[in-house]
UniProtKB/TrEMBL annotation, chain A:
Key words, A-Z: Cell projection, Cilium, Repeat, WD repeat
Localisation per UniProt entry: Cell projection, Cilium
Coarse class of the protein's main subcellular location: other
GO cellular component terms attached to this protein's record: intraciliary transport particle A
Protein name (Swiss-Prot/TrEMBL): WD-40 repeat-containing protein
Domain of life the protein comes from: Bacteria
UniProt-listed InterPro entries: Ift122/121, WD40/YVTN_repeat-like_dom_sf, WD40_rpt
Pfam families: WD40
SUPFAM superfamilies attached to this UniProt entry: Putative isomerase YbhE
TrEMBL record, chain B:
Reaction(s) catalysed by this chain's protein: GTP + H2O = GDP + phosphate + H(+)
Function as written in the Swiss-Prot or TrEMBL entry: Zinc chaperone that directly transfers zinc cofactor to target proteins, thereby activating them. Zinc is transferred from the CXCC motif in the GTPase domain to the zinc binding site in target proteins in a process requiring GTP hydrolysis.
Keywords tagged on the record: Chaperone, Hydrolase, Nucleotide-binding
UniProt key word Chaperone: yes
Family: Belongs to the SIMIBI class G3E GTPase family. ZNG1 subfamily.
Domain of life the protein comes from: Bacteria
Stated name of the protein: GTPase, G3E family
Alphabetized SUPFAM superfamilies for the sequence: Hypothetical protein YjiA, C-terminal domain, P-loop containing nucleoside triphosphate hydrolases
Domain CobW C-terminal intervals: 251-345
Length: 336, 346
C-alpha cells in the first residue's frame, strides 16, 4: 500500500541558526525569542536578529513567557527576563543553584524552583517561598487565581502563595516530573519517571493513570477549547480527551504515527490542529478531526541524536509556528 | 550516533580522600575537560570550571522495588549538562561518604534518557588504609562501597605499617577480589587507572580472575573456600607472601566455573530468577559463558536485579570454552548458587 501523499509547507519555513541547544522559545508580539543553552537569548523580528547575553558563561536551563517577556532560569542560578527589544532584567538569584523549573502566570506572576525551594513572585514583585518535600521538578499555575501546582517525589502540592495555609497534597507514589493544569482548572496532570502520566480530578480526587509511553513525556499542550491534552513521549502524538468527565476509561487519539518519537507538541491557538516535533527533527501539523498531516520540516537525513525538536510554539494568532532543535537549528513557519 | 559521554563514579567513606583524588584528576595535564557533580560543597574547593552541586535524592521506581532505586537529581543534572555538550569530554560524580553506589549505577541502566547519552565507566572507591579495617566492621556503607567497586584506591599507605597494609588489603580482598586495587599516598595514582576503564562495557569484560596477588606476582592456585559453620566468627588467616586471606562473614564473592558449556535454555531462566529473588543481596554480578553450539562468548554483568548480557566476540582457536560466573553480595547461599549453576551444564 502506498503511503498517503503528505502535503508540504516546507517552502514556507524560514530557517535560522540559533547556534546552541534551543531550551525553549516564546512569541513576544511580533518577535520570536529563543532561550539557548549557551546562555544567550536570540530575538528575531522579521529580518532583524539580536543576541543578548541572559546568562553569560552559563546556560538557560528552563524558560517561560507571559507573552511580553521571555523569562529564563539558568545554571548560574539567575532568573532573567528578556523583553522583545533586548532589554534584560534580573529578577531572581538562587546563588548558583540550578533553576529546575519556571512558569509564568497571569497578571505578571511568576514562579521558579531550585532544588526543593520554590519561589512565587506576584505582579508587584513580592516574593513568597515554599520548601517542597523533595526537588520541585515541575510547576504550573492554576488558570483560576494565584495558586501553584508543584510536582515532586510522591505527588503534587497545591500552594496558595498568598496564604500561610499548608499546601494541599495530591499523592501518588513515584517521581513526578512535569505538571500541567487543565484550562477549566478541573484536572491536574503530571508526567512521571516511569513513562506514564498521572492525573487527579480535583472535584473528587479521583486518580487517573495514563500509561503505555515508551519514553518520558516532556511536552504537554492543551487544545484551545480545553477538551484535549496532546502529549509527547511516543511514536505518535497521544491526545487525551478531557471533555465531560475526563479520560477515565477512554482511549486516547494517536496521530502523526512515525518511526520516531514525538519530542514536542503545540496545539494551534484557535483550531483543532496540533504541531508535533519529533526526535529526528521532523515537524508535522496534524488536524485532529480527520488526521490530515502537513509536513513542516523534514527529518534530518543522517540519524543524528541532536536533531530532536526541543522547542515549538505558535504565535498568538496561530499564523506562525517557530521551532528549535537540540543541535541549534531553528526556523519559523508562516502559514500561507 | 555520537559517542556516549563516560561517567566515573567516585565513592569512598568519609575522609578517605575522594576530594584529593578528584582534584588530582582535574589538575593533571591530560587535556580532558570534565563536568564534576559533587554532593556537598565541602571545605575543600574543587579545581574545575564546571562544578554542579547535587542533592543526592534517591527515588524508587516502579512502585517501590528496592532494586529500582535511582538518583533523581542525577537524571536531572545529566539532562541539563547534555544541553551543553561539547563543553566537556567526561563526567565525574562524587558521592557523599555515606552513599550507597547502587542507585547511582542503576540510574545509568534504568533511565533511558541517561543511558542514551552517557555510559557508566567505572565505580572508583577510595579507601583509607588506616581506618578501612575498622569501617568494614562498623559501617555497612563502607563495605558496600568496597564490594561495589571496579577500581579501589587504597589511600594513605604512608600512614600504616607493612603489617597493617597487608591486613587491610586482605580485608578488601575478602569482600571484593575482582576490583583493580592501587595503593597510593595522598591519592597519587596514574589517572589512566581511574578513568576510561569501561568497566560496564560487555566487550571489555575480558577475564574474571581474582586479583589476589597482582602486586607480588606470586601465583597461588588453591581454593579459598573455607568450610565454615553458621557460627563461624573467627578470622581465617593464611599467609602467602605477606598477604592475609580473610573470610568476611557478611559480604562474600561467589565464583563458580564449569569446565565446559552451559545450556542457555537452562542458564538464562536460572540467572534471571536468581537475581529477581536475591537481587537485594547481590551487589554486582559478572559472567563469561560458553553456550552450547554458540561460537561466541556470552557475557553479562549486573547491578542488583538489573542484568545486561549479550553475545560478544567469538571464542578464539585454542581458547578453552569454560563458563564462569561471579557474584558479590551479602549472605549469599553459595551452595544453592553452585547447585543451580551446575544444573545448567550442557
Amino acid at each position: 500500500m502506498a503511503a498517503p501523499t503528505i502535503s508540504s509547507l516546507t517552502d514556507h519555513v524560514a530557517d535560522l541558526a540559533a547556534g546552541a541547544h534551543v531550551t525553549a522559545l516564546a512569541w513576544l508580539g511580533g518577535t520570536t525569542a529563543f532561550a539557548l543553552a549557551d546562555g544567550a537569548a536570540l530575538l528575531v523580528a522579521g529580518d532583524d536578529q539580536k543576541r543578548v547575553a541572559a546568562h553569560p558563561d552559563g546556560a538557560a536551563l528552563v524558560a517561560t513567557s507571559d507573552g511580553r517577556r521571555l523569562v529564563t532560569g539558568g545554571d548560574d542560578g539567575r532568573i532573567v527576563a528578556v523583553a522583545g527589544d533586548g532589554t534584560v532584567e534580573e529578577i531572581g538569584d538562587e546563588k548558583g543553584r540550578w533553576i529546575d523549573a519556571i512558569v509564568a502566570g497571569r497578571d505578571g506572576t511568576l514562579a521558579w524552583s531550585a532544588g526543593k525551594r520554590v519561589t512565587a513572585r506576584d505582579g508587584r514583585g513580592r516574593l513568597r517561598h515554599f520548601e517542597a518535600p523533595s526537588t520541585a521538578q515541575g510547576l504550573a499555575f492554576s488558570p483560576k487565581g494565584y495558586r501553584l501546582a508543584i510536582a515532586h517525589y510522591n505527588g503534587v502540592s497545591l500552594w496558595f502563595p498568598n496564604t500561610d495555609a499548608e499546601p494541599e497534597k495530591l499523592e501518588w507514589k513515584g517521581s513526578h516530573l512535569g505538571v500541567t493544569w487543565s484550562p477549566d482548572a478541573r484536572f491536574v496532570v503530571t508526567s512521571m519517571q516511569e513513562n506514564a502520566l498521572h492525573g487527579w480530578r480535583l472535584s473528587d480526587r479521583r486518580d487517573m493513570r495514563m500509561t503505555g509511553y515508551p519514553a518520558k513525556t516532556r511536552s504537554f499542550s492543551w487544545s484551545h477549547d480545553g477538551n484535549w491534552l496532546a502529549t509527547s513521549g511516543a511514536d505518535a502524538v497521544i491526545v487525551w480527551p478531557f471533555d465531560k468527565d475526563g479520560p477515565m476509561g477512554r482511549a486516547p487519539r494517536e496521530c502523526g504515527v512515525r518511526h520516531a518519537k514525538v519530542s514536542r507538541v503545540a496545539f494551534h491557538p484557535g483550531a483543532l490542529v496540533v504541531a508535533a516535533g519529533y526526535e529526528d527533527g521532523c515537524i508535522l501539523l496534524i488536524r485532529l478531526t480527520d488526521a490530515t498531516e502537513l509536513l513542516v520540516r523534514r527529518a534530518s537525513v543522517e540519524a543524528q541524536e541532536d536533531a530532536a525538536v526541543t522547542a515549538l510554539a505558535w504565535d498568538a494568532k496561530g499564523k506562525r509556528l517557530a521551532f528549535g532543535t537540540a543541535a541549534g537549528a531553528a526556523g519559523i513557519l508562516t502559514l500561507p | 550516533m555520537a559517542d556516549k559521554i563516560p561517567v566515573t563514579v567516585l565513592t569512598g567513606y568519609l575522609g578517605a580522600g575522594k576530594t584529593t583524588l578528584l582534584n588530582r584528576i582535574l589538575t593533571e595535564p591530560h587535556g580532558q575537560r570534565f563536568a564534576v557533580i559533587v554532593n556537598e560543597f565541602g571545605e575543600v574547593g574543587i579545581d574545575n570550571d564546571l562544578v554542579v552541586g547535587a542533592d543526592e535524592e534517591v527515588f524508587e521506581m516502579n512502585n517501590g522495588c528496592i532494586c529500582c532505586t535511582v538518583r533523581g537529581d542525577l537524571i536531572r543534572i545529566l539532562d541539563g549538562l547534555m544541553k551543553r555538550k561539547g563543553k566537556f569530554d567526561a563526567i565525574i560524580v562524587e558521592t557523599t561518604g555515606l552513599a550507597d553506589p547502587a542507585p547511582v549505577a542503576q540510574t545509568f541502566f534504568m533511565d533511558q534518557d541517561v543511558s542514551d547519552k552517557t555510559k557508566l565507566d567505572a565505580v572508583v572507591t577510595v579507601a583509607d588504609a588506616k581506618w578501612l579495617t575498622d569501617r568494614l566492621k562498623d559501617a555497612p556503607e563502607a563495605k558496600n562501597q568496597i564490594a561495589f567497586a571496579d577500581v579501589i584506591i587504597l589511600n594513605k599507605i604512608d600512614l600504616v605499617s607493612p603489617e597493617e597494609l597487608a591486613e587491610v588489603e586482605g580485608r578488601i580482598r575478602a569482600v571484593n577480589p575482582y576490583a583493580m586495587l592501587h595503593k597510593a599516598e595522598r591519592a597519587a595514582v596514574d589517572i589512566s587507572q581511574v578513568l576510561g576503564r569501561n568497566a560496564f562495557d560487555l566487550e571489555r569484560v575480558l577475564e574474571l580472575e581474582p586479583a589476589f596477588l597482582e602486586d607480588d606476582g606470586h601465583h597461588h592456585d588453591h581454593d579459598h573456600d573455607h568450610a565454615c559453620g553458621p557460627d563461624c566468627d573467627h578470622d581465617h588467616h593464611h599467609h602467602h607472601g605477606g598477604l592475609k586471606h580473610y573470610h568476611d562473614e557478611d559480604m562474600q564473592s561467589v565464583a563458580l566455573t564449569i569446565d565446559g558449556e552451559v545450556d542457555p535454555d537452562k542458564f538464562l531462566p536460572w540467572v534471571n530468577d536468581l537475581v529477581q529473588r536475591e537481587g537485594p543481596n547481590i551487589l554486582r554480578s559478572k559472567g563469561i559463558l560458553a553456550f552450547r553450539d554458540e561460537p561466541r562468548r556470552f557475557v553479562f554483568q549486573g547491578v542488583h536485579m538489573i542484568l545486561d548480557g549479550d553475545l560478544q566476540r567469538e571464542w578464539k582457536p585454542g581458547e578453552e570454552r569454560r563458563s564462569k560466573i561471579v557474584f558479590i553480595g551479602r549472605n549469599l547461599d553459595k551452595e544453592a548458587i553452585r547447585e543451580g549453576f551446575l544444573a545448567c551444564t550442557a
